[in-house]
Input
Amino acid sequence: MTDRPPADAVRDPRDELPEHLPAMRAFAISLTRNSASADDLVQDAVVKAWSNFHSFQPGTNMRAWLFTILRNTFYSNMRKSRREVPDPDGAYSAMLFEKPAHDARLAMTDFRTAFDQLSPQHREVLILVGASGFSYEDVAEMTGVAVGTVKSRASRARLRLAELLHLEAGEDFLGEDKTTAAVMSRSGIQAA
Amino acid sequence: MSGNTGKRQDSAASRALIEDNLRKVYQETLNEEIPDKLRDLLERLRQTQQEAGK
Output
Protein backbone atom coordinates (compact mmCIF):
# COMPACT_ATOMS: atom_id res chain seq x y z
CA MET A 1 0.00 0.00 0.00
CA THR A 2 1.21 3.49 -0.76
CA ASP A 3 0.29 6.97 0.45
CA ARG A 4 0.83 8.46 -2.97
CA PRO A 5 -2.32 9.07 -5.00
CA PRO A 6 -2.49 7.40 -8.41
CA ALA A 7 -1.03 9.52 -11.19
CA ASP A 8 -4.41 10.25 -12.72
CA ALA A 9 -5.71 11.58 -9.36
CA VAL A 10 -3.12 14.36 -9.25
CA ARG A 11 -4.79 17.65 -10.03
CA ASP A 12 -4.03 19.00 -13.46
CA PRO A 13 -2.55 22.50 -12.97
CA ARG A 14 -4.77 23.67 -15.84
CA ASP A 15 -7.74 23.17 -13.52
CA GLU A 16 -6.47 26.10 -11.45
CA LEU A 17 -6.50 28.49 -14.38
CA PRO A 18 -10.15 29.67 -14.00
CA GLU A 19 -9.51 30.93 -10.47
CA HIS A 20 -6.74 33.20 -11.79
CA LEU A 21 -8.86 34.72 -14.56
CA PRO A 22 -10.21 37.69 -12.53
CA ALA A 23 -6.69 38.68 -11.45
CA MET A 24 -5.31 38.22 -14.98
CA ARG A 25 -8.09 40.41 -16.33
CA ALA A 26 -7.56 43.09 -13.66
CA PHE A 27 -3.83 43.15 -14.46
CA ALA A 28 -4.58 43.24 -18.20
CA ILE A 29 -6.94 46.20 -17.74
CA SER A 30 -4.27 48.05 -15.81
CA LEU A 31 -1.87 47.51 -18.73
CA THR A 32 -4.19 48.18 -21.66
CA ARG A 33 -6.58 50.71 -20.01
CA ASN A 34 -9.35 49.20 -22.08
CA SER A 35 -11.66 46.28 -21.25
CA ALA A 36 -11.96 44.94 -24.79
CA SER A 37 -8.20 45.00 -25.36
CA ALA A 38 -7.68 43.48 -21.92
CA ASP A 39 -9.99 40.57 -22.76
CA ASP A 40 -8.12 39.97 -26.02
CA LEU A 41 -4.84 40.07 -24.10
CA VAL A 42 -6.08 37.59 -21.47
CA GLN A 43 -7.33 35.34 -24.25
CA ASP A 44 -3.91 35.32 -25.94
CA ALA A 45 -2.16 34.72 -22.62
CA VAL A 46 -4.48 31.86 -21.68
CA VAL A 47 -3.88 30.11 -25.00
CA LYS A 48 -0.10 30.51 -24.58
CA ALA A 49 -0.23 29.30 -20.99
CA TRP A 50 -2.36 26.32 -21.92
CA SER A 51 0.02 25.14 -24.59
CA ASN A 52 3.03 25.71 -22.33
CA PHE A 53 1.83 24.15 -19.11
CA HIS A 54 4.57 21.53 -19.42
CA SER A 55 7.01 24.35 -18.54
CA PHE A 56 5.12 25.30 -15.37
CA GLN A 57 6.78 23.97 -12.23
CA PRO A 58 4.11 22.54 -9.91
CA GLY A 59 4.38 24.03 -6.45
CA THR A 60 5.56 27.39 -7.72
CA ASN A 61 3.43 30.52 -7.93
CA MET A 62 1.02 29.96 -10.80
CA ARG A 63 -0.35 33.50 -10.68
CA ALA A 64 3.14 34.94 -11.08
CA TRP A 65 3.75 32.54 -13.98
CA LEU A 66 0.49 33.57 -15.68
CA PHE A 67 1.15 37.27 -15.09
CA THR A 68 4.60 36.86 -16.66
CA ILE A 69 3.08 35.35 -19.79
CA LEU A 70 0.44 38.07 -19.87
CA ARG A 71 2.89 40.96 -19.57
CA ASN A 72 5.27 39.44 -22.12
CA THR A 73 2.35 39.12 -24.53
CA PHE A 74 1.34 42.72 -23.85
CA TYR A 75 4.81 44.14 -24.52
CA SER A 76 5.25 41.91 -27.55
CA ASN A 77 1.92 43.14 -28.99
CA MET A 78 2.84 46.71 -28.17
CA ARG A 79 6.14 46.41 -30.01
CA LYS A 80 4.33 44.96 -33.00
CA SER A 81 1.64 47.59 -33.17
CA ARG A 82 3.82 50.57 -32.21
CA ARG A 83 0.67 52.52 -31.64
CA GLU A 84 1.85 54.10 -28.42
CA VAL A 85 3.14 57.66 -28.54
CA PRO A 86 6.75 57.53 -27.29
CA ASP A 87 6.64 59.40 -24.02
CA PRO A 88 9.34 58.12 -21.67
CA ASP A 89 9.26 61.16 -19.41
CA GLY A 90 5.51 61.47 -19.37
CA ALA A 91 5.83 64.99 -20.80
CA TYR A 92 3.18 64.43 -23.43
CA SER A 93 0.83 62.87 -20.89
CA ALA A 94 1.39 65.74 -18.52
CA MET A 95 0.39 68.15 -21.27
CA LEU A 96 -2.88 66.30 -21.70
CA PHE A 97 -3.64 66.09 -18.04
CA GLU A 98 -5.59 68.82 -16.37
CA LYS A 99 -5.29 69.53 -12.71
CA PRO A 100 -7.93 67.43 -10.95
CA ALA A 101 -10.59 69.16 -8.93
CA HIS A 102 -10.42 67.64 -5.47
CA ASP A 103 -11.05 68.79 -1.99
CA ALA A 104 -10.11 66.61 0.97
CA ARG A 105 -11.12 63.43 -0.80
CA LEU A 106 -9.51 62.36 -4.02
CA ALA A 107 -12.16 61.41 -6.55
CA MET A 108 -11.64 57.98 -8.04
CA THR A 109 -12.18 59.36 -11.52
CA ASP A 110 -9.28 61.76 -11.00
CA PHE A 111 -7.17 58.89 -9.74
CA ARG A 112 -8.07 56.68 -12.69
CA THR A 113 -7.33 59.48 -15.13
CA ALA A 114 -3.95 60.08 -13.54
CA PHE A 115 -3.18 56.35 -13.37
CA ASP A 116 -3.97 56.04 -17.07
CA GLN A 117 -1.40 58.74 -17.84
CA LEU A 118 1.42 56.62 -16.41
CA SER A 119 3.65 54.58 -18.66
CA PRO A 120 2.79 50.86 -18.92
CA GLN A 121 5.89 50.03 -16.84
CA HIS A 122 4.78 52.35 -14.05
CA ARG A 123 1.19 51.08 -14.09
CA GLU A 124 2.51 47.54 -14.07
CA VAL A 125 4.80 47.94 -11.08
CA LEU A 126 2.19 49.79 -9.02
CA ILE A 127 -0.43 47.14 -9.65
CA LEU A 128 1.93 44.24 -9.03
CA VAL A 129 3.52 45.64 -5.88
CA GLY A 130 0.85 47.98 -4.59
CA ALA A 131 -2.37 46.18 -5.35
CA SER A 132 -1.74 42.51 -6.20
CA GLY A 133 0.47 41.96 -3.20
CA PHE A 134 3.47 40.45 -5.00
CA SER A 135 6.81 40.86 -3.28
CA TYR A 136 9.55 42.97 -4.88
CA GLU A 137 11.42 39.70 -5.46
CA ASP A 138 8.45 38.14 -7.28
CA VAL A 139 8.06 41.20 -9.46
CA ALA A 140 11.78 41.24 -10.22
CA GLU A 141 11.55 37.67 -11.44
CA MET A 142 8.37 38.33 -13.42
CA THR A 143 9.74 41.40 -15.15
CA GLY A 144 13.30 40.16 -15.57
CA VAL A 145 14.99 43.02 -13.74
CA ALA A 146 16.88 43.41 -10.44
CA VAL A 147 15.01 43.86 -7.16
CA GLY A 148 16.55 47.31 -6.75
CA THR A 149 15.22 48.30 -10.17
CA VAL A 150 11.72 47.21 -9.18
CA LYS A 151 11.94 49.28 -6.00
CA SER A 152 13.20 52.39 -7.75
CA ARG A 153 10.63 51.93 -10.53
CA ALA A 154 7.85 51.71 -7.93
CA SER A 155 9.10 54.85 -6.21
CA ARG A 156 9.31 56.74 -9.50
CA ALA A 157 5.81 55.56 -10.41
CA ARG A 158 4.41 56.82 -7.08
CA LEU A 159 6.20 60.14 -7.53
CA ARG A 160 4.84 60.50 -11.05
CA LEU A 161 1.33 59.68 -9.89
CA ALA A 162 1.63 62.19 -7.04
CA GLU A 163 2.83 64.79 -9.54
CA LEU A 164 -0.12 64.16 -11.82
CA LEU A 165 -2.49 64.40 -8.87
CA HIS A 166 -0.75 67.48 -7.51
CA LEU A 167 -0.20 65.75 -4.20
CA GLU A 168 2.57 66.43 -1.74
CA ALA A 169 5.33 63.92 -2.52
CA GLY A 170 8.12 64.31 -0.04
CA GLU A 171 10.75 61.94 1.23
CA ASP A 172 8.16 59.39 2.38
CA PHE A 173 7.60 58.52 -1.24
CA LEU A 174 11.06 57.01 -1.35
CA GLY A 175 9.94 54.47 1.19
CA GLU A 176 11.90 53.16 4.13
CA ASP A 177 14.28 51.17 2.03
CA LYS A 178 17.70 52.84 2.07
CA THR A 179 18.83 51.13 -1.13
CA THR A 180 15.89 52.59 -3.01
CA ALA A 181 16.56 56.00 -1.57
CA ALA A 182 20.19 55.69 -2.68
CA VAL A 183 19.21 54.61 -6.19
CA MET A 184 16.73 57.48 -6.44
CA SER A 185 19.25 59.93 -5.14
CA ARG A 186 21.94 58.76 -7.58
CA SER A 187 19.50 59.01 -10.47
CA GLY A 188 18.73 62.62 -9.63
CA ILE A 189 15.16 62.20 -8.43
CA GLN A 190 14.39 64.98 -6.01
CA ALA A 191 11.81 64.80 -3.28
CA ALA A 192 9.47 67.77 -3.26
CA MET B 1 4.54 71.76 14.53
CA SER B 2 7.39 72.63 12.17
CA GLY B 3 6.92 73.10 8.45
CA ASN B 4 9.00 70.01 7.72
CA THR B 5 6.88 67.84 9.98
CA GLY B 6 3.73 69.09 8.29
CA LYS B 7 5.20 68.37 4.85
CA ARG B 8 6.21 64.87 5.92
CA GLN B 9 2.70 64.22 7.18
CA ASP B 10 1.19 65.49 3.92
CA SER B 11 3.57 63.30 1.97
CA ALA B 12 2.78 60.21 4.05
CA ALA B 13 -0.92 60.92 3.66
CA SER B 14 -0.49 61.30 -0.11
CA ARG B 15 1.31 58.00 -0.32
CA ALA B 16 -1.36 56.26 1.75
CA LEU B 17 -4.03 57.80 -0.46
CA ILE B 18 -2.31 56.48 -3.58
CA GLU B 19 -1.88 52.98 -2.15
CA ASP B 20 -5.50 52.94 -1.03
CA ASN B 21 -6.80 54.07 -4.41
CA LEU B 22 -4.61 51.55 -6.23
CA ARG B 23 -6.12 48.74 -4.19
CA LYS B 24 -9.62 50.06 -4.87
CA VAL B 25 -9.06 50.33 -8.62
CA TYR B 26 -7.63 46.81 -8.72
CA GLN B 27 -10.36 45.39 -6.51
CA GLU B 28 -13.11 46.92 -8.64
CA THR B 29 -11.82 45.18 -11.74
CA LEU B 30 -11.30 41.94 -9.81
CA ASN B 31 -14.98 41.98 -8.93
CA GLU B 32 -16.14 42.39 -12.52
CA GLU B 33 -17.91 39.51 -14.18
CA ILE B 34 -15.62 37.37 -16.33
CA PRO B 35 -16.75 37.69 -19.96
CA ASP B 36 -18.32 34.61 -21.52
CA LYS B 37 -15.73 34.56 -24.27
CA LEU B 38 -12.98 33.81 -21.73
CA ARG B 39 -14.99 31.07 -20.03
CA ASP B 40 -15.88 29.62 -23.44
CA LEU B 41 -12.22 29.67 -24.43
CA LEU B 42 -11.24 27.59 -21.39
CA GLU B 43 -14.05 25.17 -22.16
CA ARG B 44 -12.88 24.78 -25.76
CA LEU B 45 -9.28 24.25 -24.66
CA ARG B 46 -10.40 21.62 -22.18
CA GLN B 47 -12.47 19.80 -24.78
CA THR B 48 -9.64 19.87 -27.29
CA GLN B 49 -7.30 18.43 -24.68
CA GLN B 50 -9.75 15.67 -23.77
CA GLU B 51 -10.31 14.76 -27.40
CA ALA B 52 -6.57 14.63 -28.00
CA GLY B 53 -6.20 12.31 -25.00
CA LYS B 54 -8.75 9.76 -26.25
User: Anything to note?
Assistant: The mean pLDDT of chain B is 84. The CA atoms of residues 15 and 51 of chain B lie 52 Å apart. Chain B has one domain: 3-53. The helical segments of chain B are 3-30, 36-53.
